[in-house]
TrEMBL record:
Cell membrane among keywords: no
Keywords: ATP-binding, Chaperone, Nucleotide-binding
GO MF annotation: an example: ATP-dependent protein folding chaperone
Keyword Nucleotide-binding tagged: yes
Family note: Belongs to the TCP-1 chaperonin family.
Coiled-coil regions listed: none
Descriptive protein name: T-complex protein 1 subunit alpha-like
Pfam families in the record: Cpn60_TCP1
């Protein structure tokens, strides 16, 4: 498929970027699969299914959008090969569904490494991004006559979602109260959560104009700092929990947009790893282990189902193969060595080489789990599941029928 040719060169650390230009000339430079597919003008119905698949993967786990499309397309291609060899489509569909379920269970049982929040080194390997502290402490929407109630509460920082009138601002200035106005409401709630404070719509509790001490947030330091051409408010040492933000700087908007997408994917990967509590080795290690698992599993199956399992495993090898091609390596030799290394794991029950994947620096294979090339298990599981379901959806279609256009009202001119 044309889509896989576009996406395959974007996979892996050495994947290339795509420059997308819309009708008005706006330029987007990215190698993120979901972004590329969203902006493509796709006409073919089957290709649109793959676009939806990428969007679903992005919405569910935030990463793995390129891999899931490549796996789904390769599964479909391998299944088509079986059908051309005389296998009934219904039988191929059942085989792919069964193989997908077994792959899901095999990853959970044999390829996942338990992760805890205390595994800081593993978390750093999942997302290598520098984080800085973010703003804290919030109160909101203060009327002029209630300004002194805020001052008397003991607060020394005030953040408001609206503007602040001059008279109230004068009182705050006289009492050394640091004021930030027109803060987005979404940020106010995040700040309140970080500092242990409370977002208030009013300082009135029917009888008195007052703010309880329990409603104030706490932070060690609040200051303003200029970065490039913008002023930012920083608060460090929040009481309730740490809040972080990421500052991205680049030469142009195209670069900044791509950096933002990269950070988003990295944070999604970190979040999914902590949620699922486990990680798997990257660099094609998981896919190669599954391919060998299906090869061994075929020894226990009838010949017809065995063929489907073998093709499923071969389809998964598209991931290490694309990684090698994009890194200018001999894909045939490296993948063959990777398969041979994983084959040793199946000679014993311990799966000692289960985490071996491609090393793009040396052009060899290595233990990627030990090297810090890891991915959340949830991303791999979702990719297998969604790719399998999409391939099955496409295989169940035996014809594409163009619907008749809607009849136009009488008297309305027709095009052409």
């Amino acid at each position: 498929m044309a889509l896989t040719k576009i996406l395959s060169t974007s996979l892996g650390p050495n994947g290339l970027d795509k420059m997308l230009v819309n009708k008005v000339g706006d330029v987007t430079v990215t190698n993120d699969g979901a972004t590329i597919l969203k902006k493509l003008d796709v006409k073919h119905p089957a290709a649109k299914v793959l676009v939806d698949l990428s969007i679903l993967q992005d919405d569910e786990v935030g990463d793995g959008t390129t891999s899931v499309v490549l796996i789904a397309a390769e599964l479909f291609r391998k299944a088509q090969t079986l059908i051309e060899r005389g296998f009934h489509p219904g039988f191929v569909v059942r085989g792919i569904k069964a193989a997908g379920k077994e792959a899901y269970r095999f990853i959970q049982k044999n390829l996942s490494t338990v992760l805890t929040e205390s595994d800081e080194e593993v978390l750093r390997n999942i997302v290598r991004t520098s984080l800085v502290s973010k703003i804290a402490n919030a109160e909101t929407d203060i009327a002029k006559k209630r300004a002194m109630a805020i001052v008397n509460s003991g607060a020394n920082v005030l953040l408001s979602s609206e503007g602040i009138d001059d008279l109230s601002e004068k009182y705050f200035l006289q009492h050394n109260l640091f004021v930030v106005r027109r803060v987005p409401k979404e940020d106010l709630f995040k700040l309140a959560k970080a500092t242990g404070g409370k977002v208030l719509c009013s300082v009135s509790d029917f009888d008195t104009e007052a703010i309880a001490a329990s409603e104030l947030g706490t932070a060690e330091k609040v200051y303003e700092e200029r970065i490039a051409e913008w002023n930012f408010i920083f608060v460090s040492g929040t009481r309730a929990q740490a809040a972080t933000t990421v500052f991205l700087r680049g030469a142009n908007l195209c670069l900044l947009s791509e950096l933002e997408r990269c950070v988003h994917d990295a944070l999604c990967a970190l979040s999914r790893a902590l949620e699922s509590g486990s990680v798997t080795a990257g660099g094609g290690a998981t896919e190669t282990a599954l391919a060998l698992f299906f090869k061994e599993r075929c020894l226990e199956l009838e010949p017809e189902l065995c063929a489907t399992y073998q093709e499923f495993g071969e389809a998964l090898l598209v991931i290490p193969r694309c990684i090698c091609v994009n890194a200018a390596l001999d894909a045939t030799a490296v993948v063959a060595k990777l398969v041979a290394t994983h084959a040793q794991s199946f000679a014993d029950a311990a799966y000692a080489h289960r985490s071996f994947g491609v090393d793009i620096d040396s052009g060899d294979v290595r233990d990627n789990l030990r090297a810090g090339v890891v991915e959340p298990t949830q991303i791999k599981l979702k990719a297998i599941r969604f790719a399998t379901e999409t391939a099955i959806t496409l295989l169940r279609i035996d014809d594409v029928i163009r619907c008749a256009p809607k009849p136009q009202p009488a008297g309305q001119p027709t095009a052409g």
